[in-house]
Amino acid sequence: MRESRLILALDVYDREKALEIAERTADYLWAIKVNWPLITGSGLKIITELKQVTGLPIIADLKLADIPNTNRMIASKVFEAGADYIIVHGFVGRDSVEAVMGGLGKTIIVVEMSHPPGAKEFIQPVVDKLIELANELKPFGGVIAPATRPERVSYIRSKLQEGGIKILTPGVGAQGGKAKNAVKAGADYVIVGRFIYGSDTPPREAARGLYEEISEVV
Ligand code: XMP
What we know:
Shape: globular
CATH topology: TIM Barrel
CATH architecture: Alpha-Beta Barrel
Number of strands: 8
Number of helices: 11
Bound molecules: xanthosine-5'-monophosphate
Distance between the termini: 13 Å
Structural class: alpha/beta
Number of domains: 1
Order of helices and strands: EHEHHEHEHEHHEHEHEHH
Strand order of the largest sheet: 1-2-3-4-5-6-7-8
Oligomer: single chain
Helix content: 40-55%
CATH class: Alpha Beta
């Protein structure tokens, strides 16, 4: 089986539900992304449990955007719990991002967001600066770009220097983006939540369908 490029966005509150969805879909995933809903609903230990149960990398989508000391303190506990990657905002500045990079795991920087129209309001005008920051701060895990706008993924890909900077794209399914188009545009990974755990299709089937769709174009 080809290595997966699919990341499950596990945005549920409940521990048992999260573990069940993760177990059922794990065969078709590269990683699991946890966000505040699951952390506030089930506690930080859910990161440790998900890792034990699935053996997959865990991405903590905290979108950290604080002063360096606070970013560092939060990241330290989250990496200790077993997270392999933490997502941070770049707009708070280089020092705040570097504070997370000094931790046990890797850092992923948001360079552009997927939600219309908010994403265009403040972040899009500074995307070039955020890409510059990402190029300068390597090595780290990657950058986040919007699957909802494949042309922006292509643009970001064209501006990123070589050197292993991955592009992770949320916005597929519930937000209207297509996995295939994001990958064709240059995304390395596709992040999908509600389309997998919140539709009429059972989560395992939905994950398998996305895995196959992506496999057709890579
Ligand atoms: P859905 O259910 O819409 O979940 O497939 C998407 C997941 O990805 C997160 N998300 C984003 N994260 N930049 C990010 O860093 C974005 O532009 C973005 N858009 C969605 C969202 O919080 C959810 O976990």
